[in-house]
Fold this protein.
Amino acid sequence: MSSPETTSAAPRSGLVVLALFLVYVVWGSTYLGIHLALESGLPPLTVISGSRFVVAGGVLYALLRWRGVAAPTRAQWPTLAVMGLCLLFFGNGMVVLAERDVSSGLAAVAVASVPLWMALFSAFRGEKVTRGEWLGIAIGFAGVLWLNAGSSLTATPLGLVLLLIAPLGWAAGSIWSRGRDLPSPFMTAAGQMLCGGVILITAGLLRGERLHGPPDLQGLLSVGYLTVFGSIIAFTAYVWLLHNVRPVLASSYAYVNPVIAVALGVWIAHERFSVSDLGAMAVILAGVVVITLARLRRA
């Protein structure tokens, strides 16, 4: 009896590890991809965010339908649209807009607060929060306050506001989606990318974004990387995690992404970070780690 259980558990554990690796590493590098795409002069909402999600969502949707996966029902599309609005328009679109004025690494540091908001939203939904979790939330938000008040973000008020909205939107959408009537995890990813992409393109056109001339090679490669790796592969892995593990584990990428983003920003984009920036990041990540350990201990 024990042998079959081990065999069946191993693939699941392996899938969780693989999905976490993709979300950790690939998403950590997307901040640099956004920076390089903006550097090429590409419109932020219509091209860098919107078009990539429409293309990625369309490809994934067509592939899933070809493999016989059921399409979302008429009742499920509104839910997917809300998820696209929260996770992609607010969660991703605001980051892209912020990176016009803020370094890629600093944007990743601000988004590291996602697990803190997810823990709070979980508490609002009635989930019991232990003292250890409240301690982690307090530590993490002390880091958020430090980042917003004492770092180089203070020089870019608009970037500061956008980077406050982004993690709020992502966390709210992630928690709100739990228990909803949704299609299969991969079809959910495709559907919300399609919905979120349309919302982003519409918002970009309304704010007057236009593509003036063909993009250069750097822009094409950056958007291509964001589309294939950031949207299709890593985003699908994240949606799968939301359906198979606790939200706090699904959002644990937030304390790995900033480290990767900062390292790549320094190495490739020659970004610089103050002691205050790095100190705030360390405090935010410490809070996320405390929350994660408290959740694991309770489990």
User: Anything to note?
Assistant: The CA atoms of residues 98 and 145 lie 18 Å apart.
